[in-house]
Amino acid sequence: MPVPVIILLCALGALALLCAVCAVRAARMKKTLPDTPAAVTWTDEEADKYAKDLSEMVKLATVSRKQEDSFEDFLVFQKKLEELFPLFFSQAENHDISGNILRKLPGKDPKRGALLLMGHQDVVPAEGQSGWEKPPFSGEIENGCVWGRGAMDCKSTVCCELEAVEALLREGFTFNEDLWFFSARNEENSGGGSDAAAAWMKEQGIRLNVVLDEGGAVVMDMFPGLKAPASGVGVVEKGYVNLRFTARSAGGHASTPPKNSPIARLSKFVAEAEKKNVFKQKMVSPVPEMFAAISPYLPFYFRFVLGNLWLFKGLVTRLLPAISPMAGAFVQTTAAFTMSGGSEAPNVLPDKAWIVCNMRPSVHQNADESIAALKKLADKYDIETEVLYKKDASAVTDVNGAEFRFLTECIEKCLPDTVVTPYMMTGGTDSRRFEIVCDNVLRFTPTRLTPQQLAAMHAANENIGVEALAEGVKTYKYYIERYNSR
Ligand SMILES: [Zn+2]
Q1: Neighbours of 93 (CB within 10 A)
Q2: Domain 240-391, what fold?
Q3: What is the Cα–Cα distance from 383 to 373, expressed in whole angstroms?
Q4: How far is the CA of 153 from the centre of ligand 1 (A)?
Q5: Distance, CA 429 to ligand 1 centroid (Å)?
Q6: Ranges under pLDDT 70 in the chain
Q7: How many A from CA of 6 to the centre of ligand 1?
């Protein structure tokens, strides 16, 4: 037999063997979710109570604003919390940080460590948003849901956490570890409450075992082909950068336009930036772990590829951006051009035109490296790059660590019909500020959200299900109880 034929046959044989190995692995990893009942239950009366409490919280419009003139409305909201959760607020030490709630419920054995529960009090504005079917601060309870701005983001988190702690106090539960509660009044505008609280904790020499904040939730359609709901626990947040690109010219009259005007150069730059990806694509933790968690529940063809990342990692990394913008954001820095401006009149050539870009640097290509990649392209069109704001990605919580695994086990017990997975957050929360006092920052609220509810975040008709709320309260309670008894 000629040598080239032998090589070809060997190559085909090796390929067939690889395919067979991948197929066997994909077949073996298939799992179905257990048919066990959830470890938590609740009564209609309990669910009604939680919904009414959340409704009271939504009715108080604690809208985030840049001006720091007064925060009277937040103090009114805090009085309401004291009324709704009297045991917690009378027993927890008050370490108020300028209107940001910081409380500590002392544990019997504080040497064991401490748990911090978080959720912000402020909400984004609703004014000027069309499509609200009910007044945004009505807090109406209708069709099994609590409606209004903040019903989901993030007063439901605050409500579930405090209901759980209050119920434990009512039952006379012994907290072994210190339990901290922090609620910023300026999370939505990055107002610095969480920075101040974390810095204060560090100054006091406080170390936390776990920080549990908003972030992931129980959602449908997390990944194409995943039929079960997913409980996504955020273990990292991408960075955040704002850039302004400015193109200049001598200006002049619009009746005699020269070539390569500022707007033409900016347009070419934006078009090329969108077409030709300038950022590094790489799959880093927690993305492989996320695929490991969800692959067993995906159809065979997805399992074949995603369940064999040892072979297909490079291919998958390149293909993800084609699947969806969200999937693409998992493996690279993203850049969105969001604002622009030029001349003040239609018949005047601009002497300068500008465009603003919002960038979310990845874990593997930090803010400076991502900025440099885009600046190189801007330079090609004689465009200036100005950094308005920059922040790198957060630290990545160890998904093989004891705290992530413990939370996962609790979710699996309370929400057994869901696939629990770590994930990379493309948006931000307050919790990353506490990295200076904690290695295990976890972002998850155990409430089920429909696609409509997810889409209503920061938009019209924000709402949350009454049953979802009750399930959330009971899951937090289960977690805190087990956490203190382990
Ligand atoms: Zn939020």
Answers
A1: 11
A2: Alpha-Beta Plaits (3.30.70)
A3: 14
A4: 5
A5: 7
A6: 1, 66-69
A7: 62
Ligand 1: centre distance to CA 313 (Å): 33
Give the Å distance between the CA of 430 and the centre of ligand 1: 8
pLDDT tens digits along 475-486: 999 999 999 998
Q: How far is the CA of 60 from the centre of ligand 1 (A)?
A: 16
Q: 211 C-alpha vs ligand 1 centroid, how far in Å? A: 15
| pLDDT score of 18 | 84
pLDDT, position 417: 97
- How many Cβ atoms from other residues are within 10 Å of residue 20's Cβ? 10
Q: What is the pLDDT of residue 14?
A: 81
201 CA from centroid of ligand 1 (Å): 22
What is the C-alpha to C-alpha distance for residues 64 and 125, in angstroms, rounded to an integer?
Answer: 7
* Residue 5: predicted pLDDT: 79
Q: How far is the CA of 120 from the centre of ligand 1 (A)?
A: 6
Long-range pairs for 375-382: beta carbons < 8 A, 24 or more residues apart:
376/278, 377/269, 377/272, 377/273, 377/276, 377/278, 378/245, 378/269, 380/269, 381/247, 381/265, 381/266, 381/268, 381/269, 382/247, 382/265
44-237+394-485: CATH class? alpha beta
Q: Where are the domains of the chain?
A: 44-237+394-485, 240-391
For the question of whether the overall pTM of this predicted structure is more than 0.90, the answer is: yes
Beta carbons of 360 and 248 less than 8 angstroms apart: no
How close is the Cα of 432 to the center of ligand 1, in Å? 13
> DSSP secondary structure string, 305-340?
HHTTHHHHHHHHHHHHHHH-HHHHHTTS-EEEEEEE
